[in-house]
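Budget justification, computational time. The allocation requested in the original proposal was used primarily to generate structure tokens for proteins on the priority list. As evidence of use, we reproduce two of the resulting records. The first is shown immediately below.
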Amino acid sequence: MSLRQMEYFLAVVEESSFTRAAEALHVTQPALSHQVKALERSVGGALLERMPRGVRLTPMGRAFLPHAQLAVRSARQAERAARAAAGVAGGELHIATVHAVAVGLLPGIAARWRALHPGVSLVMREYGSTDALEEQLERGVADLAVGPEPAEWMGPLLRIGREELVIVVPFDDPLAGRGAVRLAELADRDWIRCAMEPLVDGVLVLDRACGAVGFTPRTVLRTEHTSTAVRMAAAGVGVVMAPAHMVRGAVGEDCVLLSLDPRWHRPLAVFSRVPLTGAAEAFAGLFGAGATAAPAGSARPD
């Protein structure tokens, strides 16, 4: 079994066709078929079922697929890491993050990176939740992640500061003239919720916080992306809790941001499966981060 054989197998799965996979890989179809058959002999059974119109995975193929994906991703990441260790003169740096951080924090960092290291391009992968971000980084889809600090992480982790969680309301809201609000004052409000909302001990942070002051938030809209939730709040659909830097990046000055009293913050971090070297280390350095062995934290009041 070879890495090339797994790459060929994955190409056939992605294209659902030996012909299209061969074209994508710039090899002949007989050569591709030969390598896939050799892989099937190696694992002891058929991975693909040849159909009149395309191919589909066999039960053995479905079991093999995620491991082949991980092996190929890890090999590519190993190659990038080896090249990065020699410096930051060229190549690619793959970054995983969540949508809110991508919108609110990373544009400025990416601009600084391009100015300092124009030879290294960035490939950014955005996820809707911290769980998805951590899971995909574990699978090797990126060289490092930037996002809310994980509750548990066994690899290298650099704290890069905190983000404030604020309440977003439209300009004509009765609270718009104030700088801060107590959560209990929002007991009778409609709420917008999004998939990015963090968990504390398995409970969504807003449910936990509101329950602590005596009410359950009345949810009127759920969305995948925080930027969508913020725009809905700016339009008057309901109120939403969101990171302050992300709100400014999503809608600028089209809404009012209210700090919570007491203020709410959550730590942000750069984290990776392996020690940061070369380009990855240089990228983390743009945040002015320092290594920490402290346990990860969750959103909480000061």
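The second record produced under the same allocation is shown here.
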Amino acid sequence: MKNLRDVPSPGPEAYDRARTALQAAMGEPVATVVRPKRWFSWPKAGVAAVGAAAVAAAVVLGTSGGSVPAGPAPRAVEAQPAVEAPLVKLASAVKAAGTQPGDASLIINTKFGLDGKPDLSYTLYTDKGQQFTGDSMKTLAHAVAKGDAEPAQQYDKNAMAAARLAANGDVDKARIAMITASSNALGVGLSPEEADKAWADAQAETAELFRKIGKPVPAPKPRPTGKDLENLINNHLWSNAEHALFANAADAEVRAGVLKLYATIPDMIVGKTSVDGQAALSLTVPPAILGGSADVLIINADNGLPIREEITSAEPVKHYVVNYKSSRVTLADVAAGKI
């Protein structure tokens, strides 16, 4: 993927098309959310290469294993069923503290792969909604200095707006907005007739994409119902909210909104832990909403900033870790390499 960096960038819709193709190829319902690109150092790739890049990202999700040198493992102290109070209380404190000075949020991801070496990626999300990425401080500074922002995506705007809505009190409305930030193939909030049409339209889009790339068209799938539908809805909520957090964690309003939305996920476990001397909370997602995989997000207990995420795939069983550092910065400082 790194060798593709000189290929022209795709249009804003290319990533979504690749994600849709990947979902269908994996035999999953078209509405299942795949980890957003913020997780990896996502180089600029031509449209023809985006499908392969998406598959590569999925392979990384399932094959990064072995011994992971991610620092001292979190020490579990106490776990309790998730209730609204802990995360909502933290969200209120985060919002009251406000956002630190600056005009952008910087988050540095350190992912440990099969070779045990750290793979860093940098994401800068500005208060104006621009996004800059790089695989080093130098490449990020160069992108900012040139004004080489990533193409704006409606998905990013929707996820940020949903988080802010939750932070400011309307959690029920924000929950629907976050679930549907990328699409509403599941028909959340729609009438039965509208929901069936939304699902059929999504299936048709997937079929058309497969025709365009010369692949066999997958058989249509019935719209999920019951517990399957509930799990997919919570899958969207978790993944879309996490996307907002990982892009713009240093914005207190976005962070507070994400915490409030996470408090609405049934059966999530909130545990007390510590990481490198920091008091922390571990948020463990119910495996049912992740297809049997395990996902534990560890956040600072005092300010809600993400510290680490540990993912274990369902089959084959592989484990990997991503560490996070978030801060408020100014574009001028980043362009000058002063971080």
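A brief technical remark on that second record: The chain has a mean pLDDT of 79.
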